[in-house]
Amino acid sequence: MNLTQKIIKAHLVSGEMIPGEEIAISIDQTLTQDSTGTMAYLQFEAIGTDKVKTERSVAYIDHNMLQSSQLNADDHAYIQSVALSHGIYVSKPGNGICHQVHLERFGKPGKTLLGSDSHTPTGGGIGMLAIGAGGLDVALAMGGAPFYLIMPKVVNIELKGRLGAGVTAKDIILKVLEILTTSGGVGKVMEYTGEGVKYLTVPERATITNMGAELGATTSVFPSDDTTKAFLEAQGRGGDFTPLSADDDAEYDEHIVIDLEALKPLAACPHSPGNVKPVSELAGMKVDQICVGSCTNSSYLDLMKVAAILKGKRIHPDVSFTVSPGSRQVLMMLAENGALADILGAGARVLECACGPCIGNGQSPKANAVSLRTFNRNFFNRSGTPSANVYLVSPETAAVSAIAGVMTSPEGVELPEIKMPEKFLINDNLILCPDDFKDVKIVRGDNIKPFPKTHPLASTLKGDVLIKLGDDITTDHIMPSNAALLAYRSNIPYLSDYCLSNCDKEFPARAKAKNGGFIVAGSNYGQGSSREHAALVPLQLGIKAVVAKSFARIHKDNLMNNGILPLVFADPADYDKLEEGDSVAIYDAPDSVRCRKFTLVVENKNINIPLKLECGDRQQKMLLCGGSLRMASGDNS
Ligand code: MIC
Ligand code: SF4
Questions:
Q1: Vertex 293, ends 189 and 501: CA angle to 5°?
Q2: Rounded CA separation 266/397 (Å)
């Protein structure tokens, strides 16, 4: 067996491990973060479980940090109190980005981790089967329910040789993105093997598994070996180590070889992580802003490399350079060893240990800016500046470009040897253990509104095509996130006024005026974030179905969890037959769900379009009764 199959087998609750079949796995650990967490905990409360049923659940507060009014702080207080009162650990604001901190303090090889954030696969860097999901799925898992997924195909990515100077783990994952594109991982797990693995540290492996999310993959995983052991020991958690790898004769569904020696520094160009070019082709481009950080590249090792490049140098006067350390552990270690002074001395702006600019929470660049970021996503307007051009690069490319003021390749730049520490600085003062808190009262701010209610599937669904969208629509298009909107993550009625506003500002008003209707889209609809809000706001606006050429995994699950039909064209060419304003209907919707075949009657054109529903048996039942929560609570009202 390969490693993915081994971990799945050890957690299999139901189903057969045949790619494409629905399976259920038990979940050992969960994580939530605050921007998806408020909703997840409201749902968790609705399920009515007293104490969390997992081995370890952690609530992180790392996304909505601006606190420009009381709203964010109210949400933080709700999350802290609801978590502690249900046996869930809390990582307080300032402690760091969920994925970085989870890797440092909680992750365990061979365990399953379900997180309400699409970059949860970061845990694959230490051999976890770590999967991103909507908040509702995480809420159910916290209540002890298994997680349902389609048994993935397993792709073996064999790493040959060793990276050259200035070429990094970020360039490996950008290469994989160039090969597979942003939808090439859907329904698949990326499993890394080969001699190249042993030369990669845990944070480097985690950069790769983290950004595997951009492939649309279910998750990515590395073996757990001596490097993993040394990392866990350095975190004072040697006891959490288990060696894990694929069998020598393991079989895979696909095989990709990457020759690390031939790899060059790469960049993902606007506006997609899959739009990859060699840095050398972009060299000389004037740069206005550079941001180092995010859960992809903000580890101790990343920032030590940046510090080594910046030491004694000056950041170009035309560049605004920010650094957001991934965790307080990272920041404290840099402070202790002097590297922070090298970074500050060069002219960097050091931000909080949080997501920050990665989710558009501050640092929106100036109009038409070129911004280099070590992040994982450069979707249109995610930075908060619609005219900005964001390029995703390695920390090394970011640092050498910061000095030059133009895009510069770090190839061949020899850094002093930066070793993984034998002991990380351990200070868990901002982690709250639930056992230390008794009789916690749950605090609810005024901004916490109930989530929209779903209903059993109606027999006839009728309405207009309210919008026709192209390919690769991201959840950042569907539910934009920025400093102003993030504060309303627990207020769906408010957020619904911004649904799809990155595509058409009139959409919410049109949807309201028509009392809901249908969305039509191209392929890979809903790629990117796990935010359930991208399903909840259409639900609030009365969207009955999304008809697309194909869907991204997490968003499709979120739609079904909330009782919205994700329907696929039986013949993708039929996409061309539909236009905004068409009046369409589905008759006998429940029967259509039962046979997974639909007919979309386009009433104004007098044509019928065949559609398919691709889902498991449980999801079929869930759609009939109007979503996951109704099914879990047996609510038939
Ligand atoms: C992201 O990187 O897009 C986010 C913000 O972390 C999201 C979660 C969210 O929208 O709250 C994700 O990746 O799932
Ligand atoms: Fe935070 Fe960005 Fe990572 Fe999302 S991708 S968890 S916003 S740092």
A1: 75
A2: 9
Query: Is the pLDDT score of 168 beyond 80?
Result: yes
- Length of the chain measured in residues: 637
Residues 128 and 71 in one domain: yes
What CATH number should be reported for the domain holding residue 199? 3.30.499.10
Tokens 């000095």, residue? 403
Q: Which of 231, 262, 293 is the last residue of a domain?
A: 262
Beta partners for residue 288, in sequence order:
none
3-state secondary structure of 387: coil
Q: Are residues 226 and 241 in the same domain?
A: yes
- 338 and 391 in a single domain? The answer is yes
**pLDDT digits 0-9 by tens, 64-87:** 999 999 999 999 999 999 999 999
Number of domains in the chain: 3
Answer yes or no: do 67 and 202 share one domain. yes
Q: Tokens standing for 593? A: 């769900």
User: Strands 22-25 and 29-32: what pairing?
Assistant: unpaired
Between CA 518 and CA 543 the distance in angstroms is 6
In a domain, 58, yes or no: yes
- Please indicate, yes or no, if residue 74 is contained in any of the structural domains: yes
Q: 250 and 299, same structural domain? A: no
Q: What is the CATH number of the domain that holds 577?
A: 3.20.19.10
Backbone angles phi, psi at 400, to 5 degrees: -70, -35
Residues 374, 302 contacting (CB under 8 angstroms): yes
* SS3 readout for 274-303: CCEEEHHHHCCCECCEEEECCCCCCCHHHH
Pocket test for ligand 2, best of 375, 474, 475 (most atoms within 8 A of CB): 375
- The residue range of the domain holding 254 is 3-262
Q: How far apart are CA 79 and CA 509, in angstroms?
A: 32
Per the domain annotation, does 536 fall within a domain? yes
65 and 83 inside one domain: yes
DSSP states of 575-592 as a string?
A: GGG--TT-EEEESSHHHH
Euclidean distance between CA atoms 502 and 495, whole angstroms: 13
Q: What spacing in Å lies between the alpha carbon of 473 and ligand 1's midpoint? A: 15
- Indicate the residue among 215, 237, 262 that finishes a domain: 262
pLDDT digits (tens, 9 = 90+) for 604-622: 999 999 999 999 999 999 9
What pTM was computed for the model? 0.98
| 538 C-alpha to ligand 1 centroid (Å) | 18
296 shares its domain with 227: no
pLDDT above 80 (res 633): no
What six digits make up the tokens of 543?
């969207």
User: Tens of pLDDT along 192-221?
Assistant: 999 999 999 999 999 999 999 999 999 999
In a domain, 636, yes or no: no
Nearest by Cα to 155 from 60, 246, 88, 274:
246
CA–centroid distance for 437 within its chain? 31
With the most atoms of ligand 2 within 8 angstroms of its CB, the residue from 359, 474, 529 to mutate is: 359
378 lines ligand 1 (CB under 6 A): no
Q: Is 359 in the pocket of ligand 1 (CB under 6 A)?
A: yes
Element (H, E) at 254: strand 254-259
With contact defined as beta carbons under 8 Å apart, do 568 and 550 qualify? yes
